[in-house]
Amino acid sequence: MARTRSASSKGIEPKHERTAHRAVRHACRLVGAGILLGVPCVLIVTRSMPSINGLGELLAHPSKLILLLNRPLDDTATVSLVRLVAWLAWVWLVLCVSVELVAQLRGRPSFRLPASGHLQSVIAFVVGASLAIGGPNRSSESSGLAVALVSSCTTGPPASSAIAGVVSTSGAFSGDGLQQTVQGNGAAPSQDGGTYVVRAGDTLWSIAAEQLGSPLDWRLIADLNYGRPQPDGGQLLDDHWIRPGWIFELPPSEAPAEAPAESGLPTGVGASGTGSVLKAAAPVGVRPRPVTDPLVTEEASRSRVVHVRTVNRARTPEHSPRAVRQHAHVPVEPIGFGLLGAGIVALIDRMRRAQQRLRPTGLRIALPSADVADLERGLRLTADPGAVEWVDLALRLLSALVRRNSMPRPPVVGLRVRPDAIELMLDRTGPTENAVPPEPFALSAEGTGWLLRRSRGLLENIRADVEVRGIDDPMPALVTLGQDEWGLLMVDLETAGSLAVIGSDADAMIQGIAVELATADRAEQVDVVVVGFDPSVEGLERVSQVGSVSVAFAKMQRRARERRALLDLANRATNSETRWAEGGDAWDLSVVLCSQAATERDVASVQSLVDLAADGSLGIAAVCVGDHIRARWRARAHGGRVRLEGRGLDLPPVAGQPIPPDFARRVGDLVSIASQTAGASGEDPPYDSVGLTDAEANPVDDRADRVEPRSPEPEVEVCVLGRVEVHGARPFTRAWAMELVVYLAMHRGGNGVRNEQWATALWPDRVMAPATLHSTASAARRSLGVSASGDDHLPRAHGRLALGPGVRSDWDRFMALARSDRPEHWQQALELIRGRPFDELRAPDWVLLEGILASVEAAVVDVASRLAEHCLLHGDPGGAEWAARQGLRVSSYDERLYRVLLRTADASGNPAGVEAVMAELLHLVAEDVEPFDAVHPETFALYRELSRRSGRFRHA
Question: From residue 895, how far is each of 336, 350, 356, 612, 884 by CA, in Å?
Answer without folding.
Answer: 35, 15, 8, 48, 10
